[in-house]
Amino acid sequence: MEPNEPNEMFQLILKEVRESNKEVKESNNEIKESIKEIKESNKELKKSIKELKESNKEIKGTLNHLNAKVDQIEITVNSHTEILNSFKFDVDFLAEKQTKIEMKVNRLEKLMES
Question: With a threshold of 0.90, does the pTM exceed it?
Fold first, then answer.
């Protein structure tokens, strides 16, 4: 029986090694599957980043366009303000002149009455 015992021991060790090898292969396959999923996720993330960059570029273009329009509106408002201020000056000047003329007319009327 003695020669048989080492053989049985060897068979047991061999069986354990095979089982361990099987477990390692299964783990390796799981790792490969995980790596495949990570690569797919990475690919999707890169696509999303590209889309975000394109959207950001469009938004910046729109913002620049809107800023240019705001600048144009600002220039228009400033020029209209200058025109209105000029009219106000003219109206104030005419109102002052009208008041002076009315004062002169009142004086002349008083002079004519006396």
Answer: no
